[in-house]
User: What shape does this take?
Amino acid sequence: METEPKNYQPRHTRDMPEGERVRIIEASARRVGRAVFFSILVTLVSFAPLLFLTGQEEKLFTPLVLTKTFVMIGSAITAIFVVPLLMRLLMKGRLRPESQNPLSRFFIRLYGPVIRWALRWKKTVLAVSLLVVLGSIPVIINIGSEFMPPLDEGSLLFMPVTLPDVSNAEAKRILQVQDRLIKSVPEVKNVLGKAGRANTATDNAPISMIESIILLKPRAEWREGMTQEKLIAELDEKVRIPGVTNGWTMPIINRINMLATGIRTDVGVKVYGNNLDTLYRLSVDIEKALKGVEGLTDLYTERLTGGKYLDIQVKRDQLGRYGLSLDEVNQVIETALGGMSLTNTIEGRERFSINVRLAQDFRNDISEIQRTLIQTRQAGPVPLSAVADIKMTDGPAMISSENAMLRGTVLFNVRGRDMGNVVEDARQRVADHIKKLPKGYYLEWSGQYENKIRAEKRLQLIIPGVLLIICLILYMTFHSWKEMLIVLSSMPLALIGGVYSLYFFEVNFSVAVAVGFIALFGVAVETGVLMLVYLNESILRLNERKKTQPITPQDLRESVYEGSVLRVRPKLMTVMADMIGLMPVLMTTGVGADVIRPITIPFVFGLITSTIYVLIVLPVIYLWVKEYELKKTGRVEFLDIKE
Assistant: This one.
């Protein structure tokens, strides 16, 4: 390493002609301009394919991608065109060499002995790097998967389901009892429940499905040691009622799931076919198979049968005896039971319809309905039972169809375990329990799992595309396959840091984590490009000094050492700017942190291992390649990247 004498006095810009100063600035900008531009381009292009995501992930991450894209475009323009101009205008006064910078001297003292040792023990360094990569394989295998990190909405949605033939009064009683029990828990601020459906075609909830929105107090007011999982477990134990199946989720994700997939829980098994009885039998078999799967909770089969119907069959052979028509009998039934609209009443600006029907006491009992009178022209009033058979019959509580086929559904939530492994175990259980489905029937796993599979298929196209584009840009930068592969070798260790961080923070792989890894690709490659540029500069200076003399392996090692050490500050600045900028995001809490932290965790910790690799392992690989070139050809190649 070349150092200045102890009595070195820094030059002043006024001591050199203006033309020489401009020439130095121009040469420096040309030297790093191409590499800087293409490294920014790598970061930009590596993120752009996320625009091809679809569904929920598209709406969530498109603003992030667009924001970073425009920022990177602005930074590229600034680095190439604005910074050289500002250097000419503002870089005046004393010129201090890198070795005189206090921060650089500090990093050189730390980094210098390490890189000297690494360059001396190349095989050991490479072997340790390989072991670190191989040691991550069990970690990768044990990392769970899910569609998106569960977002803590600050409230809960309790969805108990009763039998289809539950009465209005019983559903109301269950709702009030459970809401009072929920309100007694200290962490609950307020609770509001409803049974049945709203007066709209978009809400198809039957009276047997109850919904209670639970507003929670701020976390600071919770009991010590209480978590959301413990709170749900306590509430679930408190509100258990025989004949009622409890279900727990959150309001926003529940509506999203229902609108996107028709499933109101995390995961659902849709059974398609043409016969309701067969569908229900298959659904019950699937429910039995799924019981006992670890992490699978709130298991429930939608009841396709069990609904109670008032069946009135008109006896047509009796109508002529009393001189009645079918329309007259139907009109009496409609008026007595369903209600008939007679007229409207106007009170100020308000308008109300007036309906008439029998009182509730005369509609709740079949015997009373049978005694409902029908006025005839010949025989006077006769009971409804004289002209109709009236009885209660069983039937489907609600008929669900999808893709022009009838559908049954088995619903469940996932808690305490990742969705990917839970569903895989559940699929295996179902496959073992139900060997063959009847002809014309098939299963489909839906809910959040359906979104997960769709996103994974899209990412399987996006990630290889990102890597291919990065390779193309690197080749355009260096015009050399060897240098391109040297830079790409930083990818495994960058990924390893992200993988270990997921395991340490107990984060499952999801679309958000994939976005973090894709962002990591670009920055890891950018750092590797800068290191390779500085190493090439050092080899270039070595060739200029040794024009007439042979280059020895010792000269080559010192040159690589110089290229690594003298530029350690700008390399660390490149990485530290990203890491420090993301630290507030990494430490954030509250609503939204559940989604943004899984993006940040692999990015930040992947940068740490990527930086270690770039500072230590990459110079070792570069020296190993150049020593091979020197041994084989007697000379060392270098790249003129400015061209």
Remarks:
- Residues 593-633 form the longest helix (41 residues).
- The first strand starts at residue 11 and ends at 12.
